[in-house]
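Async update (no meeting this week)

Hi team, since we skipped the sync, here's where things stand on the single-chain job. The sequence we agreed to prioritize is pasted below, unchanged from the tracker. I ran it this morning and attached the output directly underneath so nobody has to dig for it. Comments welcome in thread, and please keep replies under the output.
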Amino acid sequence: MKNYNSKQTGAVSILTLLGLKSLSQRYLVAMLVVSVLLCTFAYFAWQFVRSTNQAQLNQIQNRAEATDAINDVSEQVHVIEVSLLRYITLPSQQHKAHIQRAYRLYDAAIIKLLANNWIKTDKSLQDLLMAMETDRRELNITTDKLLATREDETKWFPAMHIMQDRMYRQNRQFTTTLNYLINDVSGELNNPVNLKTYQLLIEIRHSWELMVAEFRLFVSNSFGIFSNNPENGMQARRINTEMYISSLDGLLNQLQQRAKANKIDGLNKSAISELQKQFNEWKKSYQSVLDTFNQGRWRYDLVILHKDVEPVLDRILQRASSLQLELGVASAKDITRVTGVAQSLSNSVVYITIGLSLIGFLGYFMFHRVILLPIAKVARALKNEVLTPHTDQSHLHLSDAREILDLTNAFYEMREQIRSRQEHLDHMAHHDSLTALPNRVLLRDRLSQAMARAKRDDKMVGLMFLDLDRFKQINDSLGHDVGDRLLQQVSSRLSSCIRATDTVARLGGDEFGVVVENVGQADQIAVLAEKILSSFTKPFQVDNHELHTSTSIGIALGPNDDNDVDSLIKDADIAMYHAKDQGRNDYKFYSAEMAAQVARHMRLETQLRQAMDNNEFVLHYQPIVSLVTGQITSTEALLRWQHPERGLLAPSEFMPVLQDSGLMRPLTQWVLQQASAQYLRHNQAGFPQIRMAINLPGLMLHNDAILNLIISTIEQTRIDPTGLLVEFTEDTLLESLVDSKKALVTLRDMGVHIALDDFGTGQSSLSHLRQNPIDVVKIDRDFIRDIPADKYDCELVDAIIAMAHKLHIKVVAEGVETSEQLEFLRHHKCDAIQGYYYSSALDGDKILALIRQNQPMTLVRASH
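Output:
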């Protein structure tokens, strides 16, 4: 270690001559001198204080014991009061035990007061304690009375048996009779007479429920449950209850009039008479409850508490306050005596203070000279190092003390380490730790500088945003370690494509940015983009994996597109996402139309959120027809948006935005619930064999979101899982093969049938069909549209049907619209069809009517 000892510039100090070369030695000598002086002063002060302290110690102890005992008495009185309130609110053995324990502690405190030496010397205080003991016995009697009343329900709340024995039974009989009438009339609502009666009965039930609810609130308010001022709440609830009683009188009178007019059959007339009887009895019971309340017998336990218990508690507290007052008077006398002692002590303190001040000045001078001054010099050197890091401070002239010399050496070592670490931190703050490329912060800085130079030189700056295509699949399937090494190789290829004056940066994840300076024409950026795209055609070799990936590039030109950094970054980002939407592995220059498209995207997303809140989504159902029987075997639930301005919209017009908006999960849950409800309607109509097909987003399979939604819907609606046919597209299943298969197997074990929708348009292979539990494949309408005229489509459809049948999978053809298509599919053993040939998508009522017709499929084309 390099030693930076300070130079000796003056004469050797006196302390050095004495052999005191370290601060610890000098400090010990100084402290020894100060200690001797302090001990001398302290000895005389201690003798004076000791002579007066013992005289007051016994008195203080007696006062403290008496104070504790009096506080115990007051505290236990409060405990008894609180425990009684809790007990009458909720009787329990725990609250009763609290009361008994408070009595024991109260008695112990009284005994402690009687034994106190201060109390024994005063006859009036002893009489006061005896009076408190008498109050204790009286309190015990009234407490027992209160507890006995609270434990007997007929004593503390006389109105309880009226509500339990009469009103509850009358309410149950009234509602039972009313529900019987409603159920009987509801079966013939097509008759206007019955419809009027049904509406009247429903209004009676509504008024009865409101009346009972208001009465319950009346009772609850009487206990102060819902209000700190229960009288106001009780008055309002009583008025509301009697208002509903009056309303029910009128409604029942109307019902009697309809019965007299022979608009209700004889059996129901008896039930109406029974309704009137139970209502009259309930009103009598209600009046009995009011009489009990008005006579002051509502809560008898509160009467005992306020009239008997609380006066005794108040007397005990008043007597405890008197004891406290006497204690305060005695303490004041003690204070007077102590004041004289304190005056004497204060004089001594003045002398001691003067002596300590002199010692303090001398000590500070020594402390400043020996310790503070050298440390201040090191502190100034540290401050100068912060303000001007590269100044030469290799020679600090400090103390010759060993500790100060060590501090100086530590300063120089710390300065070297700080400079080294600062350089490392600066690099980390501006570079990506994985690829060592500049990060987003450094990219913004270099882009800002490039923009300034471009404006000065009348040139352009090119900003490219790159995002790897399908990087998530590589990351999920091969692991993050492989994904990280792929990113390192990508960064190397990008760096090899650019000039030394340009900047390539990693922005995060699989996103990269490139700043291209001194651009004269946009073609220069296009050439560089083509070069980057070409560099990705060669596969990446990571361990034993040969990885193929491409990139989507968005390009913005400054200052042509925008003249500030943030706007230019936003433009390049928009162009990059536009390149992805247009099929990936391409580059796009930013344009104003792209920004407008983003604005439309955001506006549509806002409208979709409003559509969720306003219930604008509806489900239509298209039948799936067997080619063997000609009968409907399933109905597929198809989502539609009833747009307030554009009318009924198909999913193709809003589904891409919906998938990016975060609304897919709640909307999928809504679709499951609505489709399940329609399936139950089919069951109730006598068609349990017709399954409900629901097209679901397969992207939610990888985190079990769809699985959880289906299980939750089945539990809530109690539908038969075998009646569900869930459909997923090929591409969504391929996003996460392992998770998808796990979820599909779980659904299959529950009895749910699984269909692969739009088959032939994705990238699924024969092994995917064989390994996954697929029950049905649905041939996409694009392959059905041109058969039998298109020979290629005919051969493809024939091959799909044959392949699926070999795997014991049924086949449904979508988009069938002509008899020629139907005959071709029937000839090639297709299992079922779906399309306008049989029926378009219908709402819930119309599809149920179509099922009821049970019309076999004919060669007559259905209207669209």
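Quick observations from my side:
The chain has a mean pLDDT of 80.
The radius of gyration is 46 Å.
Reply here if anything looks off.
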